[in-house]
Amino acid sequence: MLEVQGLTKKFGGFTAVDAISFDLGEGEILGLIGPNGSGKSTTFNLVAGLYAPTAGSIRFQGREIGGLKPAQVCHAGIGRTFQIPRPFRKLTILENVALSAFYGQNGKVSRATAWKQAEEALNLIGLPYANDAGIDGLGAAALKKLELARALATQPRLLLADESLGGLDEAEMEQAADMLKNIRREKNITIIWVEHIMGVLMRVVDRCIVLDHGEIIAAGLPHEVARNPQVVEVYLGSDADDLQAQTSQRAGEGAR
Amino acid sequence: MIGRNWIIATALLACVPLAVSSLYILHVLITLLIWAFIYTGWSLMGRFGLVSFGHGAFMGIGAYVVTLLWNLQGISPWIGIPLGMLLAVAVAVLIGYPCFRFRITGHYFALVTLALTEVVRSIIIALRDTTGGSLGITPASALKDGATWSLTALQCSDKRVFFYAALVCWLVGIWIWQRIDQSMMRHAMQAISQEEDAAASVGVNVTRAKLTITVISAAMTAFGGALYGQYQQYINPETVASLGVSLQMVFAVIAGGMFVKLGPTVGAVFTLLLTEGLRVGIGNQINSLDSTIYGLMLVLFIIYMPDGILGKLMEKRRAGPRAA
Fold this sequence. Notes:
The structure holds two protein chains of two kinds.
Chain A: E1 2-11, E2 14-24, E3 29-33, H1 40-48, E4 55-60, E5 63-64, H2 70-76, E6 78-80, H3 93-104, H4 111-125, H5 140-153, E7 158-162, H6 170-187, E8 190-195, H7 199-204, E9 207-212, E10 215-220, H8 222-227, H9 229-236, H10 240-255
Parallel strand pairs in A: 3-8, 3-9, 6-7, 7-8
Antiparallel strand pairs in A: 1-2, 1-4, 4-5, 9-10
Helix pairs in contact in A: 3-4, 3-5, 4-5
Chain B: H1 4-19, H2 23-46, H3 55-73, H4 77-101, H5 106-126, H6 128-131, E1 149-150, E2 155-156, H7 159-181, H8 184-194, H9 196-201, H10 206-232, H11 237-240, H12 243-256, H13 263-281, H14 289-304, H15 308-323
Antiparallel strand pairs in B: 1-2
């Protein structure tokens, strides 16, 4: 579904992403992890069209999308969320999502359909929206949900989730992880999930790519990656033991 | 959605020329309606954060194209008005496209548009042999041999005719405002005005949305300028194409209320009362007193009443029953 080949992004003399390649199958959840400054957000923004690649190609469903603008990437069938939620504050919750459904499908659906799809997306995410409820007063978790609902309403085939767990407490993280799994099951959407916290993510993703200094240092199944000495060294530092304990426990859960 | 109140209000307004014989009052009402229409056109952009100081240029283009075509080529305003609007739209796209494409927003957008007004004013003055320069220009009169009106020249000595033309024009302006308010484009523009990247990421073509609204706004303003010229039968750069005119639009809309349908109209009433009040009360002895007062009041409005007079009143009315 998505093939990334030799993707490179330079900002002046600094190489943020250095010739990385990976691919992604239909219905997969791929975790893209790495410490701050590792290039994962840049990779994410390259796929989402916020940046144009310096070199390399991004093929989505057989079509080159590298260098397309964000709106075109969205119309091609890729939805994204923002790490720091960016709600449209002057619009109600429902309007936020309905707008996304309408424009995300390039105006090819009627307004009535857009509104219906918005309600579906909000129900799937579990964000209440009654009584023309506005954005003010929504907490961090609700805003993250709104980001997801907005991205889903554009009816994507591929969802790019940017640090959907950031700023959430333990229980909310578990909930968010379940939600992403649920989204994949219900809508058969492929997901790239960028996160710098590994814990909960490892339970949900099928495969994992670890970036450091703009290069892929490890790729594979979550529990393999977590045991990779290079990953442990550059990324996890002192939390390594803790993390290994978590992932092996979860791998056990998954097998059951 | 045309409510009963609107029909009654329009009917009442339509009766004014029958009831009022004072030419002065009629004149004030005509200019009021034309300005209210132009302000409504400006507010289409202003309400979405596109604060333009370039609308003096669009108004000037509308007024001058029509008058010059008529005077120089004998081309009827019926053709001149669409051509003037077309030229204004072309200029709007020329300025707007690069601004929107390269994300020139906020203060920088205001500055670019401010320059546009000045460029158009300078051109009018530089071409003084054709345009009459800063002395202005009068459309050649088609009212000869005691004729009171000419359809081809869009001239008429009866103010009542202009009153009805201005009334229809204003109603159309309100209708356009309302159509946009009820469209998905309004949602898109509100989203863009706050989170441009996020709006783009959910599929909104930001440049196209901004250009669309700019084109509508420029076309309306050019039309208003043309109508103003036909009514006044005299235009000069100061009254239709200056920075002063652009500022007046910004001030009136902010004072009246940028985010509500009748805000620009209330702004037109307010500025008119202010100008006429100053003229009658103080006279014309103190030069640019009105501009000074506009500037001062603009600051006060932005600080204390950013939603304008009507916006504030409506907010109070909404809050009223709940508080009681």
